[in-house]
What does this fold into?
Amino acid sequence: MKTLAMITARGGSKRIPRKNIKEFNGKPIIAYSIEAALGSGVYDEVMVSTDDEEIADISRKYGASVPFLRSEKTSNDYATTTDVIEEVILEYKKRGENFEIATCIYPTAPFITADRLKTAVETLRSSDADSLIPVVRFSYPPQRAMEIREGKLVFRQPEFLSMRSQDLTPHYHDAGQFYVFRTESFLKNKNIMVGDILPLELSELEVQDIDNEVDWKLAELKYNLIHE
It folds into this structure.
């Protein structure tokens, strides 16, 4: 059962220029994703999908392959992760290489570890599920969410106000790090978020969206705290 790791790294980051190769604690942030994938030992191929020659060169330096560059269609601001995944899988098929299980890894996810990727792939492989997604629990119960209507705070679900927090059902959201999936299911559904999905729960300390400079600093602080 052949496995593929694809790291999606477009060159045109807007909010943090050159985000995917910006130095994070001393090395390009994409290096963490590449090293985790290679270190896991569960992939037949670890590749980077990019439209940028500098990103490609740095990716090769850290051990990933860049067998082809992205098309113009998947390099613009409107291309989705699904578009990129489909292009990569189909391009490999054209080259006579088929992968049963693939992992899409984000290039700005320094909290990913080799052990976690190995666990994720082996968990999906030993199941009948279509995909596996790392998730993190909402720190505050969404059942107690409020909105502002005509200048006043209103609870969206007032029926939960009298319940203790610990009695409310936990809610989770995508950790935004990686997705493991069966390529056949993906090509059929054109979506990772459908079918039977396995969860891999992470702690809040291991999760950080990186959309601006403040997020970047928070991610470095969390990373250093974990590795101390």
Remarks:
- The helical segments are 29-40, 53-61, 81-94, 114-125, 183-189, 213-227.
- The first strand starts at residue 3 and ends at 8.
- The chain has six helices and eleven strands.
